[in-house]
Amino acid sequence: MSGSVSQLERNKAAVRRLKESQGTQDEAAAIREILAPGYTRLRGGMSNLANNAPGQGFPEPGAFLRGAFPDRVDVIEDLIAEDDRVGMLWRFTGTHQGNLFGIPPTGRRVDIHEIGIFRLADERITEGWFMADELGLLKQLGTQLPPRKDGRLIVPSVTDAGEDGDAVVKRLMAKPPVTQEERNKLKVARSKSSFAQKEDRAHYVQRRWGLQHLRDYGEANGLVQFDPSHAFPGRNDRITGLIAEGDKVWMQFNLRGTNTQSFYGLPPTGRRCEMAEVGIATFVGDTWTEGWYLADGVGILLQLGALHMLAGIGCKALN
Predict the structure, then answer these.
(1) How far is CA 301 from CA 80, 210, 245, in A?
(2) What is the pTM of this model?
(3) CATH number, position 247
(4) Is the dihedral of CA 306, 312, 318, 319 positive or negative?
């Protein structure tokens, strides 16, 4: 773990305060005090819904979506820090009572996860990167993306951002790992490289899959074998961030590859795709015991031109 313990705790406290202030009388003051001048939001939590909404005449969903979910409650489930970065996982619950990026109120309750990765300087947040379970949200609302007036879809671009797994592993191995966090981080990075070792996950259980809702669909329809590793056989994921503290390692990465095989029953499209994903690894000593993943499911369906697959998980098209 890099950085003094007190500094890491202060950074985590700043991020926690920002989240817990939302929807309270302290919100404006917390934003002024905690967000640095020039703060940059690199990615919004519901980026696919938001990116398809501009210019469509949809009502605003309100600050922190509280116009759409006025009874919104966020509960922090995990908080981790290393160097100048903080990772936070929280659960978002609320009742859909207002327009959400063009989705009319459904009155349904939602319960989804969202992840934030923050960079801080002098205990002020300079950057924020967010990803919510948009696919789970649409499933719970029972609806698809609202159609745009021009019939277009705004699709996430392929950026090729990040670092090749082999390069990350070689860099981490250049200085032999000494601390438990360093050893754990190396094992997690190794999983995205040609240095992967089966024994690293000999006692491993995957608590959540990145595309959990599509995997559930696959299991229900006898298609589970057509997962992303099958659909993108030449995939070469790139690591965009690693944070290790205590018994946890968080890894940000982008799945990259060309769709040349069936994807949960979708015929091969030949499209080159990139999907953001975050994995949370839990260790007991040197043993990697659990994995929990969240991926941009709506983004990959947009890239594949496969939004019709949403119907398979219970999402109906809006008129």
Answers:
(1) 30, 14, 33
(2) 0.96
(3) 3.10.450.50
(4) positive
